[in-house]
Amino acid sequence: GLCCPGRDPACLSLGWRPDGSHGPCYCDAECARTLDCCHDHAETCPVVPCVVSQWSVWSGCAEPCKTTYRVRRRHVIQEPRNGGEACPPLEERAGCVEYWTRQGAECKQSLVPALITTGGFGKARKKRAAADGSERAGYCVEFQLMAITPGCLHSHHSYTRWMQYLREGHTVCVECQHPALDATSLHCYGDGSGSKKNQLLHWQAVGNPQCKGTWKRIRQLDTCSCPSVHSFLFI
């Protein structure tokens, strides 16, 4: 009738051992490992593994307007017994960003992923802006590229060739000019304004959704000074 959890030398009986001999034998959960169980231990104390429920649905982000996490949970249906397999983790977290507040307002621009294209597109853009008299003074932001997806190197179309010059660790210039320059905030979406020092910000290349990554904002300048292959535009 004994059936003890863990290692318990006091969980002792007198009976038949698995090798057929008769004498002291144990009924704790460790006896199977030490090979000194009573002969009926497996039937009297069957191993019962932990059983857990299915995962819940993912929660929303813990906080809006910042890089944080979401959570899903599960609960224990059956606790393990008699040396059964222990319960797995009951909570998982995953990275998460929400771009809208709980009240439905848009978050600060630093968190919105920057959409970029080659700086060569800017010449035609400036001509159009000058023609309708709507051009406003822009600015340039320097970033250090931190992570780049392999999809940037697999761009074979002529209009995506510029993405192959993106390299981790390089400094790039991204120009904010009309019409990407928002008339109210006087910023481009994703320019990192308001971000903390060394905060990882996200960008994505226009024309190839497989080309994206992260960068850190270095500084804002009046004009860009990077080589043409490392000069880009906010969209």
Automatic annotation (TrEMBL):
Pfam families: SBSPON_C, TSP1_spondin. This is SBSPO protein. PANTHER family: RPE-SPONDIN, SMB DOMAIN-CONTAINING PROTEIN. InterPro entries: SBSPO, SBSPON_C, Somatomedin_B-like_dom_sf, Somatomedin_B_dom, TSP1_rpt, TSP1_rpt_sf, TSP1_spondin_dom. The gene is Sbspon_1. It comes from Pterocles burchelli. Residues 1-50 form the SMB domain. Keywords: Disulfide bond, Glycoprotein, Signal. Gene3D superfamilies: Thrombospondin type-1 (TSP1) repeat (2.20.100.10).
